[in-house]
Amino acid sequence: MKTYLPIFVVVAVLALVPFVTASNVVLNFLVVTLLIALAGQGWNLLGGYGGQYSFGHAAFFGTGAYVTAILQVQYGINAWFGLLIGIAAGALVGIVIGALSFRWGLRGSYFSLVTLAFAEVLRIVASVAPITGAGVGTLIKLDLRPEAFQFQSRAPFYWIALGLVGLSLIVVRGIENSRFGAYLVAIRENEDAARALGVDTFSVKLAAMIVSAAITAAAGCFYAQYFLFLDAAIAYGTWISIDALLAPIVGGVGTLFGPLLGALIIKMLGESTKLVTGGAPGLDLAIYGLLLIAVVGLAPRGIAGLLSALVPRRFRPPSVPEHHHG
Amino acid sequence: MLSPVILVPALLNGLMTGAIYALIALGLTLIYGVLHIINFAHGTLLTAAMFAAFFAYALVGLDPYLAVLIIAPLFFLIGYGLQRFIIGPTAHGEDRNYLLVTLGLAIIIENLLLYVFRADTRTINLPYAFDVIEIGTAFLAVPRVIAFVAVLVVASVLWIFMQWTDTGKAIRAVAKEKLGAELAGIDVAHIHAVTFGLGTACVAIAACLLIPTYYVNPTAGDAFVLIAFTIVVLGGMGSILGALVGGLFVGVVESFSSMFLGQSLGQIGIFVMFIVMLLVRPSGLFGEQA
Amino acid sequence: MAEMLLRIYAISKRFGGLLAVDKASFNVRPGRITALIGPNGAGKTTLFAIISGFLTPDEGRIVYDGADITGAAPHMLARRGIARTFQIVQPFAGLTVRENIAVGAHLARPNRVDALAAAGEVAYAVGLGTQLEQSAATLTVAGRKRLELARALATKPRLVLLDEVLAGLNPSEIRDMVPVIRKIADWGVTILMIEHVMQAVMTLAEQVLVLAEGRIIAEGTPQQVAADRQVIEAYLGHGAAARMISGAGHG
What we know:
The structure holds three protein chains of three kinds. By secondary structure, chain A is mainly alpha-helical. Chain A has helices at about 5-15, 15-20, 25-50, 60-75, 80-105, 110-130, 155-175, 180-190, 190-195, 200-225, 230-235, 240-250, 260-275, 285-300, 300-310, and strands at about 140, 230. In chain A, strands 1-2 form a two-stranded antiparallel sheet. In chain A, α3 packs antiparallel against α10 (about 200-225), α3 packs across α13 and α8 crosses α10. Chain B has a two-stranded antiparallel sheet with strand order 1-2. In chain B, β1 and β2 form a beta hairpin. Mean pLDDT of chain B is about 85; it is low at about 285-290. Chain C has helices spanning about 45-50, 75-80, 95-105, 110-125, 140-155, 170-185, 200-205, 220-225, 230-235, 240-250, and strands at about 5-15, 20-30, 35, 60-65, 65-70, 80-85, 160-165, 190-195, 205-210, 215-220. At the A-B interface, α6, α12 and α14 of A face α3, α4, α9 and α11 of B.
């Protein structure tokens, strides 16, 4: 299908990177970037397309990560199967938070606050619950076999992360071209008008929340396998909630490639700041904050918006044949 | 176990802690009530003020209760400038943008503090920090009693300011009817910035009251953010009285729940209350009033 | 008595101390244009919000097409064929005209391509055909009113509630819009419209309902209503009818 072509091109080009360089530093950087892009893709579906700004996507990321890890460590369940369960668990958390918030009609800032609070509750629970290893954290045993979702080199991890991002791009593009997607955007633009036109806003928002949570949870599952260590501050920490919203907002909120573009920009910026300042903590993140304010103030449609303002207006799909006036 | 010997001190200690919460929430609710902004930078501004109070003592030996006379006006100016020159112009009047811009500010402030001061936790040792006052069966630390009284004074002064001064009246006018206030010749951008400055000054006072008995590190203020949000929601967004009563209430709830659940899990009580409050009664117990 | 499409039974709605709608009862016949008129603050928009499910009445019942729909959610009513426009236009500002209308068209057409195509047809019918790919935010007031209408029509309604679609238009824009409304009625869509532009009410409506202080005070053809003593007083104040009638007597 023509509308999916850009996705295949982008993914195919990115897939070539490990053939160009074997540098662990480069691949590691790109894996982390893809991870943020994936988490951001999840946020972007709900926040960018649906207009529901979550400040607590760590709730889904952390759940995906912990479920994948705990199933292996505590129950000896295969990591690949754990990945699927982790995604499902993230989606389930999405159902709970979404059902509660949307049933009570929380909008705007209230929704942001309540998602933040849910993530914090999970973080506190995870920091004391024995099953997560509480303060010590959870360590996944080293087992460098593909069957165990662990690899000797970074390249396979990179391709898997890329595959997950590609899959999420296809899912989101599919939604863009569907009635569900049109309804979601309509809710973002004007919820009352959408209701008047027959949109069941509760169900649409909830569905978006579930898919969004599942995508971000997938990023969490991948994180667990890649780093093999989790604690409450990593899994449910505010860093991922912020990265997940920063990437799409910087890249272009509510656009297909916004999260990927934004993740690349913020990670490059973060890494180069670290290089310049010699790795002192803080400045790289301070730059993120600066970037967030700059984008909101100067380029509300993100970098993607800036780019499309520079190049000539995109060719629109051909119009439907003309009809006679009444 | 539930004898008054345990419960009364828990109650009094809860009230003492709650007073500080109330003051932080007061700043937040003031900003919300007038600008309709949820200020995510509130907690990091608290941290910054705590650092200011810390260094005032550590470097110059200035007692926090005297330093407040400098730090509060300083943070008023900082808050004024932030709203006037950064938040206001970049948010383009959109709700979501305010969220993002103040979130961006929070990230910047917190990480600059981290960069400059590292993650070290610092405390100051005031000579009278461990003095206690005996009330019935309870022993209360002197700094906490001072804080409790100070908060009541600050809240009263703020209330009088809002009721009786021209600026206070202008703030209330802007809160109620922005367009009307603008037509009546009130400089809305200025009033917004003044309000943000007042909210930030509240946090600066809270920092000076906290530092004698608390510690400071670059994330020290974070612990208070959600608590302050809870109080604001509980007391009704924008209500001064609500923030005061809500703060005391939350302090007591926390005191009791950490007594029964332990320190770290005790925090959950607040978040659960927060979520329930948001879901069930977003307008708060005291309704919407400026 | 002909089958009624919509029956309103003693609907009341209170906001705090204010009784916005006070036991209003009326019927709407299928395939006709019914106008709901009344002075400002009479409760017309509240009544619309109740019929379209945005507000729940405190008392009374609404029967649509033989079924009780009191308290049903707006999207359920839209699916049953009740569409509405908003007095204060509510475009999806970030979308194009075609995408706006397609949201309505999706109600009957799950497929994106079908909905976008159908949106084009509806746009031509209301005179937005040349602005299909334009952003809704760039439309003039008249354009936005047409867009409200187009989106509602795209849901293929049996009953449309038009809340002041002529308000804010200049005389020539009104002249352009009136035939559009008549055309919609000619398709067999029942129209209930709130309107302040009396000239349009007189030419379009077959039946007029007059709401004042939350109650229906008169009902009939435009001519009957225009001559009604109570109606004149409701609009122009106490004693106005007597003055007008005596004035007419002299003329």
